[in-house]
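Illustration 12: Sugar phosphate transporter domain-containing protein.
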Amino acid sequence: MESRVLTGATAISSVPRLRKPAARLGGSAAFFPAARPIGAVADGGHLIWGRQLRPAILLEASPAKTLRPCLAAASSPAEGGDSAGDAKVAPVGFLEKYPALTTGFFFFMWYFLNVIFNILNKKIYNYFPYPYFVSVIHLAVGVVYCLGSWTVGLPKRAPIDSNLLKLLIPVAVCHALGHVTSNISFAAVAVSFTHTVKALEPFFNAAASQFILGQQIPLTLWLSLAPVVLGVSMASLTELSFNWLGFISAMISNISFTYRSIYSKKAMTDMDSTNLYAYISIIALLVCIPPALILEGPQLLKYGFNDAIAKVGLTKFISDLFWVGLFYHLYNQLATNTLERVAPLTHAVGNVLKRVFVIGFSIVVFGNKISTQTAIGTSIAIAGVAMYSFIKAQIEEEKR
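Figure caption equivalent — predicted structure in token form:
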């Protein structure tokens, strides 16, 4: 996933409940004891999943005897309970004790799956240059994975209604368009060059925020984007694998993912990221199938499949398509889950390092020859993205 998708939770603060005074029967206040609401845990309430369960009234007729919930902490040594020594503290698991290791593992798997996806994806295009069909396979394998996960309840499928569906459709359409155009670029030029062009995505995000959403972008943020534009321009002028199809497709992908971010802000929901991404994948798959059938269907039936099978064999062809689809879905899912665990500044560092890893590994694996100017331009663009990400993360922290 090129950019982070898109969950949000609505924080609801607790509101004190207003209670009417108890009605007196026959003018006798002694018969019915005084009632008072219990608002704190110390008054006998319990916090369960963020909700406070408490008695409606507490009888105070006898100061010596107070009604206490059966699950109250009566075994606390401070209260002198008989079972003070029997209280057992639940053991802390290894992952809870060292959360940094868990987050580090998420980052490692995110990078690993992303690099493997990009390498395998490019290898497929070297013998099967049909990006529309391959894009459909990416999404189809992910959808099958999601349906299987829902079947076994990992996670449990979140319900969806017509209102939420209307909000998710624009997000999924932009996701589908950005995904297909990215694959067209991957098929046409080197992976490193596509990722260099896609480093311009922050520029499009800033422009959309300023001129479409009406959000004022600080001057420092705009200035940090100058190295990105300069670096991409330098790399494009001397890139040995440059062609206009790959360049324009990568630019369209940037625009598509920018609009996906805009629509995502309008589709904020309490649904967890795993379910949300599953629904977006299903809708995006339905969007991608028609153009794949129309634009590539006749060629695939005539000679596309036969040529690929003749080059690598049926077993490898099918297994490559399956694995590239699985890696695509898992790396996007891991990216979403990883970025939910960290602060905006760590998020910024993670995104920049991911792009550096992909560009570096693709050059090594495929042995792409790049000019000195291309290398310098790519480095300047990545440094600009890092600068932009850091400044934006600091602005978000200040807003919080």
